[in-house]
Write a structure and sequence with these properties.
Residues 96-121 are annotated as: Disordered. By secondary structure, this protein is mainly α. It has helices at residues 2-70, 77-95, 103-120. It has one domain (2-120). The chain has three helices and no strands. Helix 1 (2-70) crosses helix 3 (103-120) and helix 2 runs antiparallel to helix 3.
Length: 121
């Protein structure tokens, strides 16, 4: 009789452990979904940053070409690129966090990048 009671207790404990394992597995699946969503957001931020960098590079090239045409004795290229880098850094500090508002956000990035390019002139 004692063995049967002990056997039932063990079975109950096993059922409780199985329930806990199932709950933990469910929580882990939810965390995995959240990780995937965050990864998607990171990818979008990187894509937007790449667009901004491309626009800044274009602006720097245009600035270099215009300064080469205007005056061949302007300051050193290193100095110009350092200043552009600082402007670019200020741009990101002002920009703050990224939003996912699509074309409107892209237009805003382009406008702000143009302002950075103009400020570096």
């Amino acid at each position: 009789m004692v063995e049967k009671v002990r056997g039932l207790e063990i079975k109950r404990e096993m059922v409780e452990v199985a329930k806990e394992v199932a709950e933990v597995a469910k929580e882990m699946a939810e965390v995995a979904k959240e990780v995937v969503e965050v990864a998607k957001e990171v990818v979008e931020v990187v894509k937007k940053m790449i667009k901004v960098v491309k626009v800044v590079v274009k602006a720097l090239k245009a600035k270099k070409e215009s300064s080469d045409e205007e005056c061949s004795t302007s300051g050193s290229e290193d100095e110009e690129y350092a200043m552009a880098g600082r402007d670019f850094e200020k741009f990101f500090k002002r920009r703050g966090s990224w939003s996912d508002s699509g074309e409107e956000d892209d237009e805003k990035v382009n406008n702000e990048t143009c302002l950075v390019a103009q400020a570096s002139n």
